[in-house]
Amino acid sequence: MRILAIDTSTDYLSIAILKDGSIAGRFHKMSAMRHSSMLVPMIDRLLKKAETKIDDIDCFVISAGPGSFTGLRIGVTTIKAMAYALKKPVVAIPTLDIIAANIKNFTGIICPVLDARKGKVYSAIYKSDGKNTRRISKYLLLPAADLLKKVSRYDNIIFTGDAVDLGPSAAPIRRGFRIKFASQIWHPRAEIAARMAIEHMKKKKFTTPEDLEPLYLYSKECDITGK
């Protein structure tokens, strides 16, 4: 089983190829939002490194968002084109799920927070027993202070993402519960997305190229409207 996974949702470009569960090639570096010029050439380079042809890929995996609108469009368009041309299935993994999966050997609440501008964050709440992580909230777009109110019932939390500095509004809630920040390891990794996709593939939870869309979260205050 050969899997090609990409993430273009942040300022990092992340690509991975898995062959029978093992990493055959990967790229994960800051790209200064040059995803459009780097993505396809880097996929070609990794395919050569993995001694694999694009036709041999059995499933394409995309980190579907939320995140950078431009980055997500680039990634989704690329995956749609390849999967459609080759008639291969797609697995779409929410970006927040991938970020939460970065946190290892932690028991408690994991809370990815991405900057959504205008004082808001993209987030979701996950519970981890140190081995397995499961989402216990909806995917959220809300002010940082509102997120902190939602997690105030928990006493062991780790925040991770580019919005870990939640500002002065966090101060009243931080008292009384253990809180950690993981700002250096948060960027979603394509190899994690690929491994997460294996379970989706076993359950045949695929998305057709025609139906693949970025996971955008909207509010009435957003500049960009959509469904």
CATH homologous superfamily of the largest domain, by name? ATPase, nucleotide binding domain
Rg over alpha carbons: 18 Å
CATH class of the largest domain reads Alpha Beta
Distance between the termini: 35 Å
Q: Which class best fits the helix and strand makeup?
A: alpha/beta
- Give a quick account of the main beta sheet: strands, pairing sense, barrel closure: 7 strands, mixed
CATH topology-level fold name of the largest domain: Nucleotidyltransferase, domain 5
Care to describe what's here?
The chain is α/β, with parallel strands linked by helices and 227 residues long. The chain folds into 2 domains: 2-95 and 187-202, ATPase, nucleotide binding domain (Nucleotidyltransferase, domain 5), CATH 3.30.420.40; 103-181, ATPase, nucleotide binding domain (Nucleotidyltransferase, domain 5). 29% of the residues lie in helices and 30% in strands. The chain contains 6 helices and 12 strands. It has helices spanning 35-49, 69-86, 95-101, 144-151, 171-174, 190-202, and strands spanning 2-7, 12-19, 22-30, 59-63, 90-93, 107-117, 120-123, 126-129, 133-135, 140-143, 156-160, 178-181. The strands form 2 sheets. Strands 6, 7, 8, 9, 10, 11 and 12 form a 7-stranded mixed β-sheet that branches. Strand 8 (126-129) and strand 9 form a beta hairpin. Helix 1 (35-49) packs across helix 2 (69-86). The longest helix has 18 residues, at 69-86. It is globular, with a radius of gyration of 18 Å. The chain starts with a strand and ends in a 25-residue tail after the last helix.
